[in-house]
Amino acid sequence: MNPPRQCELPLFVYGALKPGLPAFESLRPWVKSAERDSVQGELLVRDGLPLLRLGSQGSVKGYLLVWDGGAEKAAYDSVCCFEPRNVYRWQEVTLQSGKTANALIGRYPEKGNPQPLFSNSWELRNDPAFGHGLDAVAQVLDEVRQTREGGAACEWAIFFRAQMAYLLLWSILERLTALCVGPGLDPMERIRRFPELKGFAEAVKNNVARCDSVSDSRNPRDRHSLDANDPRGSLLYYYQVRSNLSHRGKGAFSEFAKVRASLHELLAITNDYLKQMHSGEEANLHER
Question: Which residue has the higher pLDDT, 171 or 152?
Answer without folding.
Answer: 171
